Amino acid sequence: MGGQIRAIPGAVLGWDMTAALAMASAMGISPRAVVELLPVIEAAMVRKLNEEREGRRDG
User: pTM of the entire structure?
Assistant: First the structure.
């Protein structure tokens, strides 16, 4: 999902969910599973990416 990130200077906001759902569909993943799991996964990734960005600025 690296190329499908919604961001502003200095922070990642989330994923492009339209692209994420299209990719999941192309991979044959159940849409029901995607809508249940993707928001949780997205939130964890956004936190981690922003923590890493913050660490690079401090270091």
Answer: 0.69
